[in-house]
Write a structure and sequence with these properties.
The complex is a heterodimer. By secondary structure, chain A is mainly alpha-helical. Chain A is 74% helix and 0% strand. Chain A has eleven helices and no strands. Chain B is α+β, with helices and mostly antiparallel strands. Chain B is 49% helix and 17% strand. Chain B is built from ten helices and seven strands. Chain B has a seven-stranded antiparallel beta sheet with strand order 1-2-3-4-7-6-5, sandwiched between helices. In chain B, helix 1 packs across helix 3, helix 5 packs antiparallel against helix 6 and helix 5 runs antiparallel to helix 7. Classes of the chains: A mainly alpha, B alpha+beta.
Chain lengths: 186, 293
């Protein structure tokens, strides 16, 4: 029989502390990714629990933040498989930027809140925009966390930022500038 | 690497905004932007976007973390009180907001009341269920590891023990037989519980794993048959507990078992508590045989 005293000694406080340090950042990201704060915290909690139970799998010296974001992302993907309601709406915006244009006029003055604008973004783009813009991760790390090629990171980043720029109606000339000069992008 | 204006592509622009461009490439992009106001404007808007993300979401970094997002919550070496509290907190934090929302839809007054109750939990007030669970778990942790005096009365004095407990708890107490699922009765004891008496029965497996059954007067009047006796589960850090109310008593079963084992054990107990007449007879027979040999 294992007593609770014995179990104390099995703890690994060091990795635990490193994990704990990441929680506020994970929470910030989750809050931006999922507008419902309770669901966002659910995601962070699941991430925390999994990270703690697998802390022995983390290699000291490697980037614990990237490791935890990868866990968060994997859990999120699993959650998403269960709730696919939003996805339909997202694909509409994702693959048909032309269709989003008239809408952007409606939003021209309305979408002042960045949180709302993010919600209108396809999730795949939202993830990249947040990991780069909010987390300040480099592209390679984003690619690793999301398990996608760097090229995909770049194109999602560009598209995501363009949509947000239009939704947020930055600057007086923003509506015009978008399609006029597109540099050769693959 | 040498980057000519012709070879600047969208990736370079993004990397420029994010400061992920080599100094040389960065200079090339800047030269280009100096001559192209529209693109320059676009870059500054991208940059503004990242700043706005921080303005909008950085406040989350400074919000106090709820208990369920703190590492301490999952540590093994927390006090029993902390464990029990957090069990209930997890319950409240994850279940109540949604459940309360439903309740509000059903009946505004009931929903609001429920919500307020969940709020006041945060101020560390114990519900009857919490204090019951805490007492049951305390008793388990105090006596289950005890090698010399785990019980007051051993199983060899089961009859006297049950008489005594019945007398003090004010209703017929039975010791369910868990022999079929590998647990032998060790014995039991009487415990103080607020202003009442509680009973603890202890069982042991051949591997010396001990589980305890804690019995006390129920804190809530009997519900309609369909709702009464519903089992609540808590588990964390190896220790788990199920509790339920049935007949005159509330029961808590505690041990270092996994959820399924614990539920199976609780089921065995409940079957016998519902029809207790069989149990004492079997035990008596066993005792008599022992006495004879």
């Amino acid at each position: 029989m294992t007593s609770f005293e014995e179990m104390d000694e099995m703890g690994e406080p060091k990795t635990e502390d490193l994990i704990a340090e990441q929680i506020p950042r994970l929470r910030r990201y989750a809050r931006a990714l999922i507008s419902d704060p309770v669901k966002a915290d659910d995601l962070v909690q699941d991430t925390l629990v999994r990270a703690l139970s697998r802390s022995h799998l983390w290699q000291p010296g490697t980037d614990i933040r990237a490791w935890m974001f990868t866990i968060l992302h994997n859990i999120h993907v699993n959650h998403q498989r269960q709730r696919y309601v939003r996805a339909e709406h997202q694909e509409l915006v994702d693959d048909q930027p032309e269709m989003a244009s008239p809408a952007s006029q409606d939003h021209h003055l309305q979408v002042r809140d960045l949180g709302r604008a993010l919600e209108l973004l396809p999730e795949a783009q939202r993830q990249v925009v947040l990991l780069v813009g909010l987390e300040g991760m480099n592209y390679k790390k984003v690619a690793a966390v999301l398990e996608i090629p760097v090229g995909t990171v770049m194109s999602r980043l560009h598209r995501g930022r363009e949509t947000l720029r239009r939704l947020m109606a930055y600057g007086p000339a923003s509506g015009v500038s978008r399609d006029s000069k597109k540099q050769a992008s693959p | 690497m040498t980057t000519h204006i012709n070879s600047i592509d969208e990736d370079d622009f993004q990397a420029f905004v994010d400061g992920q461009l080599s100094p040389e490439a960065c200079r090339t992009v800047m030269t280009y932007l100096a001559a192209n106001a529209e693109e320059s404007e676009r870059m500054s808007e991208y940059h503004q976007l990242s700043e706005d993300l921080h303005k909008r979401f950085d406040e989350v970094l400074y919000e106090p973390l709820p208990r369920r997002l703190r590492v301490e919550h999952y540590r093994q070496n927390r006090t029993l009180g902390e464990r029990i509290r957090s069990w209930f907190d997890v319950d409240m934090a994850t279940l109540v907001p949604r459940a309360a929302a439903v309740a509000v839809l059903m009946t505004a007054s009931v929903g609001a009341g429920w919500w307020m109750k969940a709020d006041s939990i945060e101020s560390a007030r114990e519900t009857p269920a919490m204090s019951f669970a805490r007492q049951a778990a305390s008793a388990h942790m105090l006596f289950a590891p005890d090698l010399r005096h785990p019980v007051e009365f051993g199983a060899d004095q089961q009859d006297s023990l049950m008489l005594w407990l019945t007398e003090r708890l004010g209703d017929q107490v039975h010791a369910p037989s868990l022999q079929d699922i590998g647990f032998m009765l060790v014995g039991g004891r009487l415990l103080p519980a607020a202003e009442q008496a509680a009973a603890q029965l202890m069982y042991e497996s051949p591997d010396n794993d001990r589980i305890t059954l804690y019995i006390r007067e129920r804190w809530q009047a009997a519900l309609p048959a369909a709702q009464d006796g519903s089992v609540s589960y808590f588990g964390e850090g190896g220790l788990s507990m199920v509790y339920w109310m049935e007949g005159p008593f509330a029961y808590a079963l505690i041990g270092e078992l996994d959820r399924e084992q614990l539920f199976a054990t609780a089921k065995t107990i409940r079957q016998q508590v519902e029809s207790p007449a069989i149990t004492p007879v079997i035990e008596e027979t066993a005792n008599t045989e022992n006495d004879a040999t």
